[in-house]
Amino acid sequence: MAFQPIRRQVTIPTAHVMPSTLGTPSSNTNECFGSVLPKDSALHAYSSVAPPEHNIADDTRKFETPNIEPTLNQSGLLNAFCTDHCPSASTGIVHADTEPYGALPEIRSTGKGEFTCKTGQYALYQNSHGWKPEQYSLQPGAEISAWRHRQDSENMRLRMEQLQLARPCPPTPVYGLGLQTDPGQWERILKTREGVFLEKEVLLERQRQHIFQLEQKLRGNEVQAHSTLLSQTSPYNDMYIIKMQELQREVTFLRAQFAEKFDSSSTEKAELEKKLNAGEAESRSLREAMKEAAQKHTEELRKQEERVKGRDRHINSLKKKCQKETEQNKEKQQRIETLERYLADLPTVQDHQKQTQELKGLQEKSSLLQEQVSELEKSLTEIRNLNREKETQLATEKRRGQELMSTIGSLKEEIECFKQTDVGEKEKRLTQESEELRQEVLSLRKEQECLRKVMESQKKKIEQMSSKVKVLEEQVAQEEGTGDALKVEVQRKETALQQLRAAVKELAVQNQDLMEQNVTLQERLRQTRGAAQPAELEAGTIITLYSELNLCLKDLRSICTLLSQRMEGRDPNLSLLLGIHSAPHVEDEDGASDSLSLDKHLDAVRRLKREIEDLRTTISDRYAQDMGDNCITQ
Q1: Which of 178, 190, 193 is nearest to 290 (CA)?
Q2: What is the distance between the alpha carbons of residues 115 and 108, in angstroms, rounded to a whole number?
Q3: Considering the domain boundaries, does residue 513 fall inside one?
Q4: Are 528 and 314 in contact (CB under 8 A)?
């Protein structure tokens, strides 16, 4: 049924009759809020980006503060209800004034592009239909005052509930400590937020029911007004028109309240949808963050396990190398012990000096004996010459004796002849000659006996001298044999010293190699430990520096003792000379120092160790050379 306006020629002093809007309240509201309601997709897109803290703060403000237009006098009151530290996305929206006894409120437009409906448009609509309201205020009905009282009490109750809910669960940052909190705490926060969302949905449902009741009441009033306009043609039209105007004003007031409530409910619905979407996005992001954190944690655990396994393998390999080196050190220690025993069997300097003194005494004795032998040989040659002369004399005397015997025989024959001739004078003369010859023969015999005795004594002396010469020759042969044996022994000792010198050099080289290998292994071990823990690396470098300095100090002390022993003429200690000492034990302690300065100190200490090793090798070579020279001179 189409609405037909009143065509009676009745003068109305106040205003014309407003045409009915029955059945079209939603169209008017849609004209006012057409740009707000169909924007669900945009609101959903904005709600996925809005931060949850801002939404919660807006929530609490929306449900705690009543619909009061913010002015300079009311700013303190608004701040007293709820203080928001985050910038709100709805700060530009100014809520409509809901004063019951003033003029009809206007729904103002904001700076954020939200559309509102002003009462000026409705006034233009009224002027176009020839109806102008009078400038006076209406007293609200009992129902409106009761409804406002109920609304205020409901808002107060909701504000108290929100304050109680806001105390135990303050808004927490999303990503500040998200990875360090317990998942149960996140679940409790999500449950509390879901409870808040459910309470807000219940409140929205109540407001929707109240708005639906107001719409029904408005439609009933409009139907009643139209029915009165169409049905009554009594002479009391002016009174009805006045009452209709009052009802129309009440309808416009209810319509403005309905628009305001619908606007607030739509904005609250949009904000709640934003908050819901933000909460869902936050929960999704939290779940993704928790998944990523769990994945990172598992990956880090796997990497740490792989690193630990690699370190264990490296440590096992280093242990095997250390065991091999200890075995090699034991073998070399055994070899050094055998060499020490061999060197202990070798004569010392005192024994060598005694042997040299004995050799010198024997050489002096042999020289004296050789001089005695030469003198005895000279005397023997002289005695032999004398014997030869005496033998020649004896031979001449024998010949003379034989000649004398022959002469005696001839003289006897002549005597016999003279006897036969009896020549006295000749006999006498011959007897005298024979007696003289006898005396000469006797004297010659005496001389012969004396010479024979002398010869026998000379023979005895010659035999004694020959026996002495034989004894001296035997002694000289024995001395020559002992000298040859000593020469052979000296040559053998010289070869042994050369072998010992070569072994000492080889041991020194092997000891240096072992020390370098030990230092390299310590550096590798320090590097492997330092790759994971830099503080332990610095402490290890400090400890290695101190241990190396201690070793260098011990080596310097041993070299000083060696030099003092050599200066005093004593035998040097072979363990100190060969540089045999226990391997340094590196302990793991905490410490802090500059890595560059520590590396420099370590390099300096290593150079000092190399110089000490060179000095030790030169001292050992000099000692071996001195031993060889002494053996050669002996």
Answers
A1: 178
A2: 8
A3: no
A4: yes
- % of the chain residues with pLDDT over 70: 58
Residues 361 and 277 in one domain: no
Q: How far is CA 252 from the centre of its chain?
A: 83
Q: Does any domain span residue 207? A: yes
Phi and psi angles of residue 89, each rounded to the nearest 5 degrees, phi first: -75, -15
| pLDDT, tens only, 550-565 | 777 777 767 767 776 7
What's the structural domain count of the chain?
A: 3
Token pair in block for residue 555:
């080596």
Give me Rg for the CA atoms of the chain: 73
The predicted structure's pLDDT at residue 47: 41
Structural domain boundaries, residue 406: 353-492
Is the predicted pLDDT of residue 161 greater than 60, yes or no? yes
Given a cut of 50, whether residue 485 has pLDDT beyond it is yes
Entry pTM: 0.25
Closest CA to 229 of 4, 2, 1, 12: 4
Nearest C-alpha neighbor of 631 from the set 503, 502, 486: 486
Closest CA to 53 of 227, 169, 161: 169
Tell me what pLDDT residue 173 has: 41
Q: Are residues 407 and 541 in the same domain?
A: no
Q: Residue 177: phi, psi to the nearest 5?
A: -125, 35
Residue 514 CA to residue 533 CA, distance in Å, equals 28
Report how far residue 466's alpha carbon sits from residue 462's, in angstroms, rounded to the nearest whole number.
6
| Whole-angstrom distance, CA of residue 454 vs CA of residue 86 | 156
Distance between CA atoms of residues 90 and 473, nearest Å: 139
CB 246 within 8 A of CB 136: no
pLDDT digits (tens, 9 = 90+) for 284-341: 888 888 888 888 888 988 888 888 888 888 888 888 888 888 888 888 888 888 777 7
